[in-house]
Amino acid sequence: xxxxxxxxxxxxxxxxxxxDAAAALFADDATIDWPCSGERIQSPAAWxxxxxxxxxAGRWRxxxxxxxxxxxxxxxxxxxxxxxQSARVIAFSEIDGDRIARQVEYWPEAYEPPxxxxxxAQRVQGLP
Length: 128
Prior knowledge:
Blueprint: H1 3-15, H2 19-23, E1 26-34, E2 39-41, H3 44-53, E3 61-70, E4 73-81, E5 86-96, E6 99-106
Parallel strand pairs: 1-6
Antiparallel strand pairs: 1-2, 3-4, 4-5, 5-6
């Protein structure tokens, strides 16, 4: 599989809420970093268990907005929601063969824009 196909398969498994199928796309010695919370997960099985334990109001839905490929590195931008909570993720995936060897996921927190720039920026709801 190409790097694009590996990451597209990852997001398809995520969209089906099949954490084990998604984890199977990681190399056995993969590293998954979450810089926003300062965490590192060092096994696909642990990563899948985190997904299973994550508190959710219902089935997770994923919308991939962009997937950029440069050789064996991909960058994904996606929105994730369970119907009550929603988050944006930017994920850098390094592909080795047909598996993800390293993934760095940035989960930024949404925030209200400060009043001092209200005259310089337009509010847009639901940016993809």
